[in-house]
Amino acid sequence: MSTQPFPISLPVGNPMLTLSRPSGTIFQIELHNGDDSRLTRTFLEEGFMPLLDLVEEEWRRELKAGKGEAALVIVGNTKQDKFFSNGLDYENAIKQADFFPMVFNPWVKRLLTFPMPTVCAMNGHAFAAGFLLALCCDYRVLTAGRAWCCFNEVLFGAPLPPPFAQVIKVKLVNPGLVRKCALEGHRFVPKELESEGVVDVLVDGKSRDILQAAIELAQSRASLAKPRVWGKIKEELYREVIIAIDEGREVRRPAKL
């Protein structure tokens, strides 16, 4: 039996994410920072990261009890069908010198190497860091309807932080696809991502249909968490990303003239 009083919504007093358990082996995090779920400092630092900690703590307790089959599903706000995530609150993020090295980058590392299968239920558009979130998951289920996915930094003059670039390279692999994504800001539609193998399943329907398909996929992979090596293997697969994150951990200060 779970030791946690699910569902759990964080941050306390200003809930932006909710953790629930659709079944005994599935954890589910729903993003609901408004309709488009911007990834703000508060959202990541006081919501997302603590919920990932709770999921792992609960799973490790269950491992000790001889269980341990588990997977995590991440879905956009299910009260709408337009956005998975619209990315960072960029203007505020770049005003904070420590945001990327101390908040965003550690979150990327945590999600990318999470110790159980992760499935992203993309129920709408995924822009910039929202698309990065999806790529950091192990599997992706996407609406077959209207949904654009892209890194549009090149279009508004923002350089790609090192972890962004590294994740794009290790997840998209194909040099032509990487160029199209990072250097051209191409808006991928669902069929393109499916044909390139970036998305595992396309689903016709509303948010609830995308979520249900993601839960079914997660359920089929949950047994892979039990041997306790899922996260360790990902640490090796994505070592280039981890190195880029660890190298940027220290906040850089302007050199004195």
UniProtKB/TrEMBL annotation:
One biological process term in Gene Ontology: fatty acid beta-oxidation
Gene Ontology cellular component terms for the protein in this record: peroxisome
InterPro entries: ClpP/crotonase-like_dom_sf, Enoyl-CoA_hydra/iso
Pfam families found in the cross-reference section: ECH_1
Signal peptide coordinates: none
SUPFAM superfamilies: ClpP/crotonase
Taxonomic superkingdom: Eukaryota
Molecular function GO terms recorded: delta(3)-delta(2)-enoyl-CoA isomerase activity
Stated name of the protein: ClpP/crotonase
Organism: Dacryopinax primogenitus (strain DJM 731)
